[in-house]
Amino acid sequence: MPHASARHQTGADTAMTEIALALAMAFFAILVLALVSMGAGQPPDTAPETTGDILAAALIPPGQEGSATPMESRDVLVVYHHGRFLDRDLAPLSDAALAALSAIREGEGRVVLAVPPDLPLGEAMAARGRIGRPDLLVTVLNADWMARLRSE
To answer: Rounded to two decimals, what is the model's pTM?
Structure first.
């Protein structure tokens, strides 16, 4: 019966099939190991945001620490210190005065918010939001201003 031998594989053919299957399984196992070691299948990192850890002084581009744009006489300076808004004479600004800053039209002067260099970025952004001007300039107070604030 010639057909009976065609249905049965020889020993060499069976060995080659088993070797191919073993190699495929080994390749798959290495692939799964590589994916697990690279972090696939893990939940996304749920680390808390660290916006409060970034200080306002870190936003100054390198090499521009000493550069300054001079204030013009029409410009309005608002100093933010310890949660309070102060004018250029360090007198507290009322909520009405802060609201009036949004009425200053372009060309009538700039509104400049000055914050301490060690102020957390989140607090600086909250102070910026309270003034509510899209063209608000934000700057960092220098050592002279910080000394003046400490003496008040």
So the answer is: 0.56
